[in-house]
Amino acid sequence: MDRMDDAPAYPVGLRLRGRRVVVIGGGQVAQRRLPALVAAGADIVVVAPRATASVEAMADAGELRWERRAYRPGDLAEAWYALVASTDPAANAAASAEAEERRVWCVRSDDADAATAWTPATGRTEGVTVAVLTGRDPRRSAAVRDAVVEGLRDGSLVAPQHRARTAGVALVGGGPGDPDLITVRGRRLLAEADVVIADRLGPRDLLGELPPHVEVIDAAKIPYGRAMAQEAINAALIEHAKAGKAVVRLKGGDPYVFGRGMEEAEALAAAGIAVTVVPGISSAISVPGAAGIPVTHRGVAHEFTVVSGHVAPDDARSLVDWSALARMRGTLVLLMAVERIGAIADTLIAGGRPAGTPVAVVQEGTTAAQRRVDATLSSVAHTVAEEGVRPPAVIVIGDVVTVGRSGAGRG
Ligand SMILES: C[S@@+](CC[C@H](N)C(=O)[O-])C[C@H]1O[C@@H](n2cnc3c(N)ncnc32)[C@H](O)[C@@H]1O
């Protein structure tokens, strides 16, 4: 073979299920390559006197067969593909020569020029395999791979699916507001959407990045009362999905945490529309965290309870057992509670929670407007009124509030 051959490699995707792949060597190179071979369903034989703990674990798990010995001529007899990566140069050369003789494509970790195949830098996201070869610059291959995979994941590289793309609705949890806190999947679906119906909360900055052809509907501006607005949102989701559009319902936090996500999923299912639910980072945990408050802390709180304060404790519609909450020592996280915090605090104190329990109110967490106001259970209603705290805010009650005072956080 011409060792100075500069012709580009011919890329191909090997379908290895059930086909023998022989790996000579059980060190770091083998360890790095084996998971992809296992994922491809190859019939893998590793020939090596010693192997790393990970390679050994794969053998123990039955993912490959490990022959604990040095290479012997004939090892490649049944192979379709070989990876030669031992620490013994003579064995590598001999195995490589056997591969050439048997016309088995062979990767060599110690001598790329002598190899008949090269391993590309690969990455996988949502059914797409990206494989990059740059000849003799593996770092550049990895950098290009990373750029493409990351771009596909976060939607900055827009390559909408065509064959696999199905019309339907994705209920996407957008996280608490910071556009960086949506999931990778949510971001990608947003980039592929034809229609986006967005809530007032969540990463609204992302809407400005959508291409002009995307129809953005502001759910907060649908001109009905609360119940009717939900009907109108459901109707809009169904109408656009039935028209063959890829629809994203972008919600704040997680769709299933006080987000009416299941109501929408049920309405869509009843209309025969495919629904994908993408979880999101809920404000219940992330907003306290952004303000430097851990909802649990060793030796301080072994539980946290997330409660909706959208109806007052004495309201007949309330499903919350406030007296049970008042007896608990752990962290209480209240959502939608700013307007009723006085009645809630009074109920907790009356039920036994100490009046001096620390409380923090975090408004518009994770956004540029984030602010934190501290109080105690007995003073919180007054503080909220005096400071003009407004929704959206998360209220945290419990000793965790003071834990992080000297620690990190935005507010
Ligand atoms: C209808 S609930 C939706 C909760 C959302 N599904 C979640 O998982 O975060 C709305 C409430 O979430 C809280 N919330 C959501 N985003 C917030 C943010 N960025 N800062 C403070 N509170 C927030 C507020 O208590 C607000 O009233």
From TrEMBL:
This is Uroporphyrinogen-III C-methyltransferase. The keyword Chloroplast does not apply. Belongs to the precorrin methyltransferase family. The active site is at residues 199, 221. Residues 169-380 form the Tetrapyrrole methylase domain. Keywords: Cobalamin biosynthesis, Lyase, Methyltransferase, Multifunctional enzyme, NAD, Oxidoreductase, Porphyrin biosynthesis, S-adenosyl-L-methionine, Transferase. Pathway: Porphyrin-containing compound metabolism; siroheme biosynthesis; sirohydrochlorin from precorrin-2: step 1/1. The keyword Methyltransferase applies. It holds the Pfam family TP_methylase. One of its GO terms (molecular function) is uroporphyrin-III C-methyltransferase activity. It catalyses: precorrin-2 + NAD(+) = sirohydrochlorin + NADH + 2 H(+). InterPro entries: 4pyrrol_Mease, 4pyrrol_Methylase_sf, 4pyrrole_Mease_sub1, 4pyrrole_Mease_sub2, CobA/CysG_C, NAD(P)-bd_dom_sf, Siro_Cobalamin_biosynth, Sirohaem_synth. One of its GO terms (biological process) is methylation.
